[in-house]
Amino acid sequence: MALDQSFVGRTYPATDPYEVGREKIREFAEAVGDTNPVYTDPEAAKALGYADVIAPPTFVFSITFKAAGEVVRDPLLGLDYSRVVHGDQKFAYRRPVRAGDRLTVTSTIEAIKSMAGNEIVDIRGEVHDEAGEHVVTAWTKLVARAAEEA
Amino acid sequence: MTAKIAYADVEVGTELPAQTFTVDRATLVQYAGASGDFNPIHWNEKFAKGVGLPDVIAHGMFTMAEAIRVVTDWVGDPGAVVDYGVRFTKPVVVPDDERGAVIEVAGKVAAKLDDNTVRVDLLVTSGGQKVLGMSRAVVRLG
Predict the structure, then answer these.
(1) Smallest Cα distance from A83 to chain B, Å
(2) Under an 8 A CB cutoff, do B34 and A89 touch?
């Protein structure tokens, strides 16, 4: 069943703030095996001009994907979330995410397409800090694979 | 923002130091915890096979996180990354053995852009197959 095209352009309310913690950044950097001290040592971060440790470039996905999840689980949109795979991912950074940030995400459905029975949804997540300044934009393409014939 | 590579010192075709990254089941469990992505296709073989996958697969975002390290290790300052995008073309299959899977990442400067930025194109493979497509980063140099 094709998804409702009228959802294209729909923007969802901003999420509650996510507070970025030093130890969460450390945990993420360790999980990807990245030993760059700018992720764990505030002095190393200051030496590069940052107020506190910064996060690896893809760290923010955890926050934007949670916000996108609320969109794709919107019962009115009717996407079969159990069949969803990640198609594309892109980020455009104004500045790196850093410890102490309180980030909100505003998600917008940019496009809905149907190809060979697959439903494709493009979601843009705008991430802002507590001062309302733009930090990063994340574009996520989700593909709900066609259901197999019973 | 303090990149250790100078814009004047790179040309189109300049190669970044290539890297390889090993991923095993323990890596995936650790990444699941750190990222909050607990989809069982990344840790439960029975579940993964039940949805038609050959075995447990790595998180696409894990592979994306490793691939950009070729760029961030090159410039030193990860905050120099202006844009980064990938297409997830093939899954990285992670067998339950001592070796796991290996992700190989090569990168080269594809274009010199305005404001001391360059576009780096990344080639990301595992087991001889390209796992990320359209894998590109724009990074600001010194």
Answers:
(1) 9
(2) no
